[in-house]
Specification:
The protein is of the alpha/beta class and 551 residues long. It contains 16 helices and 26 strands. The strands form five sheets. The chain has a nine-stranded mixed beta sheet, with helices on both faces. Strand 22 and strand 23 form a beta hairpin. Bound molecules: adenosine-5'-diphosphate. Adenosine-5'-diphosphate binds at residues 185-189, 302-305, 324-329, 359, 419-421, 433, 436, 525, 527. Adenosine-5'-diphosphate (ADP) is lined by residues 185-189, 302-305, 324-329, 359, 419-421, 433, 436, 525, 527. This is Long-chain-fatty-acid--CoA ligase. It comes from Caballeronia choica. It holds the Pfam family AMP-binding_C.
């Protein structure tokens, strides 16, 4: 045995470190109540201890699941540490889900306490009667903002609970493999499934995600996680910011371009993180007004493929470097980051950008491979595409309440998690997702990747959003159909858009047709709901004479 100290990797240690070594560092939040709130890590640590005591007095024991329904803000952050640090399980619920789905998820998770932001009061009033398992509802606000009347029985006030406690509290020590937090997948491709993280998996993910060739986080950064704290722990940033001592800026519910831009400029944000749809709103705001970013130098884009046109806009127009990341709820979430190696630095800017547009290289801790339909491993030649498998200490081993069905597959004697993504891997180890297995277009026995086709459409100056789906075809089984939202005032035609594909891809990959609509259906985590588009337009190519006219 080695002769080193044996200390469990616990989430509370992140907060202890931030308080002791970065106590004066700031956490700034745009509050649901409307104003800007600022305090230090020292304040946050003290309040987290008080909240841990308060929740303990409500019966929160180790293992108990505490739900949150909240935007990115300091009270949510306190709960991240108060709940997990006490050995209970923080279950972040996604408020954008349908109320029926919320009820289902809270029941499935057996939540006992539910803490929620002020603006979700009407929602919780509507669903509270259907949540008999919840013993305590906590409104995350102060006494002045408590409703005079509510149908929620025994509604508790967060700041009252806080005020009743002092901050003398020792974080308990326990096994690092204990559950720390719970997040359900967004269910874009099926029913939501619960992913239960541990203290150990979270800490290892935090270390790896902060490395220079990952998110490159430091004490000199001011980080704005636009990605919600209810979506895979805001990609781990509430933990990694404490680990490195970065300033945190939390945007609350105001995720429109103007509000985000104002916050970035006012707080000197150096790094932000979000899904492409959010950045589209930000760019629409800045481009319209000729604005610049005076401090932001990096932005992390993931959750869906980052269109190369977006990378170009951030880098060429604004000098903001884009970090393209890939991950999943099941991976805590980070798996790969598109950061160059030395050997690529000699190549042209276009070649470098082509590499950085891929989903990227595996973090240490994540192993990956691609396999064919028979399960044989495919070469890393950047050409062969197959099902992407991953394994590692922050990859899930089974879902919550999973009745014994393992989601893992065996490959060469080892357990791997099948991601449901279809990808290539090049000789330098850069993985490129060509599609989700359910979205692949199978044309005459050949596969066409929808992401490439979407990226080309998104590069057209008149296109606001584009999705490419497999439409049934009488001769080829399936052919690509583009569904497009034009930019306001643009008069782009089908012929113009299809002409834009010429010379950019093999001719047979060109979509068969284009449907223009007003808005694409979006899921709760900002992803396009392609299955809805397939339901609506799946037969579009079957009877050309009777095609529905779409506005
Ligand atoms: P859900 O699977 O329910 O949508 P997740 O948020 O966990 O919830 O989504 C993970 C999936 O999102 C990945 O399997 C992949 O298909 C997609 N994804 C995430 N990041 C990227 C990216 N950078 N490029 C392409 N697809 C991505």
């Amino acid at each position: 045995m080695g002769l080193m100290m044996q200390q469990p990797l616990l989430i509370s240690s992140l907060l202890r470190h931030a308080e002791r070594h970065h106590g004066e560092q700031l956490v700034v939040s745009r509050r649901v109540e409307g104003d800007i709130h600022r305090y230090t890590y020292r304040d946050m640590a003290s309040r987290s201890r008080r909240m841990a005591k308060a929740l303990g007095s409500l019966g929160m024991e180790p293992g108990v699941r505490v739900g949150t329904l909240a935007w990115n803000g300091y009270r949510h952050l306190e709960l991240y540490y108060a709940v997990s640090g006490s050995g209970a399980v923080l279950h972040t619920l996604n408020p954008r889900l349908h109320p029926d789905q919320l009820v289902w998820i809270a029941e499935n998770a057996q939540d006992k306490v539910l803490c929620f932001d002020l603006n979700f009061l009407p929602l919780i009033e509507a669903v509270a009667p259907r949540l008999p398992g919840i013993d305590a509802f906590v409104l995350m606000t102060d006494r002045a903002h408590m409703p005079a009347q509510t149908s929620i029985p025994n509604l508790l006030c967060y700041e009252d609970l806080m005020a009743a406690q002092d901050d003398v509290f020792e974080w308990p020590e326990f096994d690092e493999c204990m559950a720390s937090s719970l997040c359900y997948t967004s269910g874009t491709t099926g029913n939501p499934k619960g992913v239960l993280y541990s203290h150990r998996s979270t800490l290892l993910h935090t270390y790896a995600s902060a490395l220079p060739d990952a998110l490159n986080l430091s004490a000199r950064d001011t980080i704005l996680p636009v990605v919600p704290m209810f979506h895979v722990n805001a990609w781990g940033l509430p933990y990694s910011a404490c680990m490195v001592g970065a300033k945190l800026v939390l945007p609350g519910p105001a995720l429109d371009g103007a509000s985000l831009y104002a916050l970035m400029e006012a707080e000197g944000v150096t790094l932000s993180a979000g899904v492409p749809t959010v950045w589209q709103g930000l760019l629409a705001h800045t481009q319209g007004k000729g604005l610049r970013f005076s401090s932001m130098n990096r932005t992390i884009i993931g959750g869906s493929a980052c269109p190369p046109a977006m990378m170009e806009a951030f880098e060429d127009q604004y000098g903001v470097q884009v970090l393209h990341v890939w991950g999943m709820t099941e991976l805590s979430p980070l798996g790969t980051v598109g950061v160059l190696k030395t050997e690529q630095l000699a190549s042209t800017r276009d070649q470098q950008r082509a590499v950085r547009s891929k989903q990227g290289r595996a973090l240490f801790g994540i192993d990956m491979k691609i396999i064919d339909a028979q399960g044989a491993e495919l070469p890393w030649d950047g050409e062969a595409s197959g099902d992407l498998l991953v394994r590692g200490p922050w990859v899930l081993s089974s879902y919550v309440n999973d009745e014994g069905d393992s989601p893992l597959v065996k490959s060469e004697g080892q357990d791997w998690f099948p991601t449901g993504d279809v990808a290539t891997i090049d000789p330098a180890g850069f993985m490129n997702i060509t599609d989700r297995s359910k979205d692949v277009i199978k044309s005459g026995g050949e596969w066409i990747g929808s992401i490439d086709l979407e990226n080309i459409a998104m590069a057209h100056p008149d296109v606001a959003m584009a999705a490419c789906i497999a439409a049934r075809h009488p001769k080829w089984d399936e052919r690509p159909l583009l569904v497009v939202v034009r930019k306001p005032g643009a008069e782009l035609s089908r012929e113009q858009l299809l002409g834009f594909y010429e010379g950019k891809i093999a001719k047979w990959w060109t979509p068969d047709d284009v449907v223009f609509i007003d808005a694409l259906p979006m899921g709760a985590t900002g992803k396009i709901l392609k299955h809805q588009l397939r339901e609506r337009f799946g037969d579009f190519l079957m009877q050309p004479a009777e095609r529905p006219t779409v506005g």
